[in-house]
Specification:
DNA_rep/recomb_RecO_N, RecO_C, OB fold (Dihydrolipoamide Acetyltransferase, E2P), DNA damage, de novo design (two linked rop proteins), DNA repair protein RecO, 249 residues, 3-stranded antiparallel sheet, binds zinc ion, 35% helix
């Protein structure tokens, strides 16, 4: 008999925390249930079958039981543990940032299949070294903003909606580019090159990113825009942003 409170779903472990003497709490970003928190009984015991399954970044197929307040992890099977990401400071910092961003941008139980797919693909690509890390992260940020309700308007003026071919200004309250007739205030100037790259990057799927090659100046300008929107729209500013800045210097 299938228990109606039991769910099976693919998920990535985005955060963990010790809980009581032997247990652990894990935050799973799941395909079918959105972000959930689950108790893992006995997870801290050395022989626990959950040990590898509940490490940060682990991507697997999980079975959870929905209790009154929390879920309980019942079973799981690893698809990719992504533990290779932990051996490199850059990859570790970037992947921690991806998990933290997903955590702060998503409310509990809000299903977002597109974001889930993007998170998994981005972790895979980060793990393979195929693509410039910074481009991967910027692309993830733009897709995260779009799928959580903060889509940037770049093909039209974000104030008067007139079609624009490019712009040198991003309005931070209207979430987008500005035409030559509208006032350039409450925003930031960026180069037209960065604007066009931003628009291209926003629409490019993650698996086609290898086609894109941007200068460091343009990447820095794009980072300024995405960082602003991320720091101002979600529950809190991601802590791993400081670590990212630190390792870049
Ligand atoms: Zn306008």
């Amino acid at each position: 008999m299938i228990n109606l409170s039991t769910f099976e779903t693919k998920a990535v472990i985005i955060k963990t925390q010790d809980f009581k003497e032997n247990d652990k709490l894990v935050w799973l970003y799941t395909e079918k249930l959105g972000k959930i928190t689950a108790v893992v009984r006995g997870a801290k015991k050395s022989k626990s079958k959950f040990l590898a399954l509940t490490l940060p970044l682990c991507y697997g197929e999980y079975m959870v039981y929905k209790g009154k307040n929390l879920y309980t992890l019942q079973e799981g099977k690893i698809i990719n543990s992504f533990q290779g990401l932990l051996n490199d400071l850059y990859k570790l910092t970037y992947s921690s940032y991806l998990c933290e961003l997903t955590d702060i941008a998503c409310a509990d139980n809000e299903v977002n299949i597109e974001l889930f797919k993007n998170l998994v693909t981005t972790l895979y690509l980060l793990n393979t070294d195929a693509i410039d890390y910074e481009l991967l992260i910027r692309s993830f940020e733009l897709k995260l903003l779009r799928t959580t309700g903060y889509n940037l308007t770049l093909d039209n003026c974000s104030i008067c909606r007139k079609k624009i071919s490019s712009s040198n200004y991003i309005n931070l309250s209207y979430y987008g580019g500005i035409c030559d007739e509208c006032p350039k205030e409450q925003g930031i100037f960026i180069s037209k090159g960065a604007y066009n790259a931003l628009r291209f990057l926003k629409n490019l799927s993650v698996d086609k990113l290898y086609r894109l090659n941007l200068s460091q100046e343009i990447k820095d300008e794009i980072a300024k825009v995405t960082t602003f929107f991320i720091c101002n729209n979600y529950a809190r500013k991601p802590k791993s942003l400081d670590m990212l800045k630190f390792i870049k210097e």
